Amino acid sequence: MSALPAARAGHAAPGAPGAAPAPAGTPALGLPAARDGRFPPAWKRERMTWIKPSFLWMMYRCGWATKADQETVLAVEITRAGFDRALAGACLSHYAPGVHADRDAWKESVRATHARVQWDPERDPHLNPLPYRSLQLGLSGPLSRAYADEWTVSIRDVTPLAREIHGLLRSGDTGAARALLPVETPYPAGPLPHLGA
């Protein structure tokens, strides 16, 4: 199950705890999480989990909640302090000249942190790539556990919303689909030179 807090919409409001859609995987994990407002014990806290603050990128990833083991989409609201802590200590998931002195420096940064960042193409409502990128934040070890057990403020099941928007797009009503999309605004993180931003 991937989970993401929103630095923007789907996981909410910049400057406050945020909420964003995340594939929670199977209903066996997602439904208890939404019901109880926290991740159940069966949610594997020791594995890498990815925060995906973009609703449409999440829909691209989970196929509008149709892909196997991604049938449940959650909006996970986390604290800004937790998100900022992860961003401040993160490294890029790939080597980038100009960000890293050399490949060895990048490899050392990967070994030294429990947070990774990828910049993936943002998506339009039809899930086509756009010419700008969206943040994906991977957490492992102590940060994955903190995400699940300390930073999470609330969890909501937004699978019905994802399916409604998808249905409108399939019927050709892009305007109505766009009207239902969560409002997303840039996250005020400031410059992040260690992440190429």
The radius of gyration is 16 Å
Number of helices: 7
| Element order: H for helix, E for strand | EHEHEHEHEEHEHH
Low-pLDDT windows of residues: 1-17
Number of strands: 7
Neighbour order of strands in the largest sheet: 2-6-5-4
Distance between the termini: 28 Å
What's the shape?
A: globular
What is the secondary structure topology, with strand pairs?
Blueprint: E1 18-25, H1 27-36, E2 49-51, H2 55-62, E3 72-78, H3 80-89, E4 91-92, H4 103-112, E5 115-123, E6 129-139, H5 141-151, E7 152-157, H6 159-170, H7 174-180
Parallel strand pairs: 4-5
Antiparallel strand pairs: 1-3, 2-6, 3-7, 5-6
Helix pairs in contact: 3-5, 6-7
General description of the model:
The protein is α+β, with helices and mostly antiparallel strands and 197 residues long. 35% of the residues lie in helices and 23% in strands. The chain is built from seven helices and seven strands; from the N terminus they run E-H-E-H-E-H-E-H-E-E-H-E-H-H. It has a four-stranded mixed β-sheet with strand order 2-6-5-4. Strand 4 (91-92), helix 4 (103-112) and strand 5 (115-123) form a beta-alpha-beta unit. Helix 3 (80-89) runs antiparallel to helix 5 and helix 6 runs antiparallel to helix 7. It is globular and about 50 Å long. Mean pLDDT is 87; it is low at 1-17.
